[in-house]
Amino acid sequence: MSATHRNMTDSATHFRATGTVYLVGAGPGDPELLTRKALRLLGEAETIVHDYLVAPEIMALANPAAEKIFVGKKGGGFCCPQSDIEGLLVRLAREGKSVVRLKGGDPFVFGRGGEEAEALVEAGVAFEIVPGVTSALAAAAYAGVPLTHRAHASAVVFLTGHEDPNKPDSEIHWEDYGKLGATLCLYMGMKNLETIARRLQAGGLTPTTPALVVQSATTGKHRQLLTTVEKVALESEHAGFGAPAIVVIGEVAALSEKLAWFKTARALTVAASASEWPPSP
Fold it and tell me: Torsions phi, psi of 89, nearest 5?
């Protein structure tokens, strides 16, 4: 056998022996919002590497025989450093396994999916991206808020509030976003909400601009609070709102007062259930 042919054979064997990593978006929580491809891959996966925010109802749809590895975070504490997660994905794929890397929302929207994809490329591991319904879209839709509206907003900005807005080298210039006139969607912003709101106002955002907090969107724990940007931090704290939550700031947020279909539907469901108690013999 020639050296060239031997090298080609070795490469083909390596390719066949290496599994594929699927970076899959689990959506905001409601299992019915999973894509068909995500559902299929969950049923076929040999290993599922999942985050904390993936709903138990979605994990219940996974292949019962699949190895399930938790690498998420809770309460701000990391279970695993990001470099360890990337190394784990590479190792599992090199063992020839079909791996679903399952993330809440969409893997490429504040999900570190880009970092993981880069690590897989550098390691020569095959991967696919399976988009999911990202949290801001779901929270707004279920709260009755069109993120764009011809009469109110023609632009949308997704921002992370996880970064400390007071640090001197902050990459987000909040004052600039206060001038945009766009709908602002804050991910992971509850901890720093007071400072963020103050800096947005310092940049020119009107204090009475509507602000909506949506917690646990699309799930049975969904709840929402409509207020203004000057009051959002205090009122959400008093009402006990916390993560996971999305904050929508802009004129469109006020439309939730008349378009909040999910909250109304849940109230009607609860009322109907109460009227049927006690159950018929």
Answer: -60, -45
CATH code of the domain containing 108: 3.40.1010.10
Residue-range definition of the domain harbouring residue 152: 136-258
Q: Assess whether 51 carries a catalytic annotation.
A: yes
Q: Choose the catalytic residue: 10, 30, 37, 51.
A: 51
Q: Is 164 a catalytic residue?
A: no
- Measure the CA–CA gap between 164 and 144, rounded to whole angstroms: 30
Please say if the pLDDT value at position 30 is more than 80.
Answer: yes
- Residue 277's pLDDT band (cuts 50, 70, 90): very low
Given 10, 37, 73, 74, which residue is catalytic?
Answer: 73
Same-domain status, 118 and 149:
no
Closest CA to 158 of 175, 177, 145, 142: 177
Question: Can you give the pTM of this predicted structure?
Answer: 0.85
Res. 146 pLDDT band, cuts 50 70 90: very high
